[in-house]
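FW: tagging you since you asked about this chain on Friday. Here's the raw sequence from the shared folder, copied in full. Didn't touch anything.
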Amino acid sequence: MSSSSIFAETGIRKTLDFLHNEIIELYSADTVPWIVGYSGGKDSTATLQLIWSAIEKLDKKDRKKPIHVISTDTLVENPIVASWVSKSLENMTSASKKQNMPIHPHRLTPKVEDSFWVNLIGKGYPAPRHKFRWCTERLKIKPSNLFINQMIKDSGEAILVLGTRKAESTRRKASMLKHEKGRVRDRLSPNASLPGSQIYSPIEDWNNDDVWMYLTQIKNPWGYNNMDLMGMYAGASADGECPLVVDTSTPSCGDSRFGCWVCTLVEKDKSMSAMIQNDSEKRWMKPLLDLRNKLDFRMMGKGDEDSTDRHLRDFRRMNGSIQLMQNGKVIPGPYLQKAREDWLRDLLKAQAWIRKHGPKEVADIELVTFSELKEIRRIWVTEKHEIEDTLPKVFEECIGEKYPEDEMEDSICLRMEDLALLRELCGKDNLHYEMTRELIGLARQVRSDQKRMGHFERLEKTFSKHYFENEEDAMEMVKNIQKRKDQIKAD
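HL: got it, structure written out here
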């Protein structure tokens, strides 16, 4: 969306003087803490730079109110951008202390149970898609909202400073204009998703040219090189940055340059492809692009979002139930055990390859953290009852090192040869093998539990989940149940 340049209309110096005075007035008006959303992209950099430069004009004794800078790292960010943001936060911390500024940077990450790989490889959630967009809430909204809500709890309220601009899109402009109508203070819009907070968007009337003119002509106050930022943009395709996401109405990074490298909400990761193509020093990211494309259900064949990766997923939902679509087909559930193990292999192999063949700055890259691996292993063994406990073996195969943790207390209660014999006895009847394995796992758990409440319910759920001969048998049963329900309604 094109818009007129505010700098061209009023001049850059006059515009900046006006905004500096406005920022100082708002900052000095009360004791409400500020929270600045920072993604490392052009808009959030310009916003923070503007705030910093304004507060810098105050006497040191008047810089009492804290300004918290929050940056959400999903742990699956584009590595180039993640490194850029991490170093920028370090520079901010150092510069803030030296300049006696009340600015406090924070790197926020999702809880381990909410991380991308724990949900996809551990629990078996399919790669995000528009019908099941489970990632944004867990990876972005929850970490930032947790911090903001804690600040509101401690201080009573908070002012959220964002780099949102009306020129970004028609939708964004309409949303901002709508919230402007609810303003009770100049320039502060109500935040419906986070009661107790208000939104201040100082560059809301700037266009792209204004942002770049400001960044290239005004020195960065925390010592970062804005020309390098422009170079990073030039190395990728021409779309927007990833905003700080605080609610579902905020666009996620699905179609932006500064998004997650695993994102399957778009048909193609144009930014990473461009980076690899335009810069030979970034070709080490090729395994990441390959894995992202492998995760993409669109790459697996023709069909709707649920049918293309159907061969990788269970016919039962996460809770063991079976649901049919209107066309009579099963709504597929989580990734099967083999698929989850294969995703882990692909991820660890990509990590090992990059560490070996990439530049020295990524020699210790961690595509999946050890905390995530521990949680994935726990879910496989104790929740899914996959008592083969294959994660350490997969890790050692791909990384070439011993898995850095001892055997799980609740893992192997049968020797591997016993499990092999059990599988041989079950033959091709995988459902009954899974049921027997799960019953063994439950028996092990109940022995170590102080309380046995709910044990019979867990047993009943296990039998219900594995009652069928196969998927066709399960579908037939569900259809018969639906027929009986329809008949009862008719009667």
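FW: Confidence is low (pLDDT under 50) at residues 237-241, 251-256.
HL: agreed, and The CA atoms of residues 19 and 460 lie 65 Å apart.
FW: great, closing this out.
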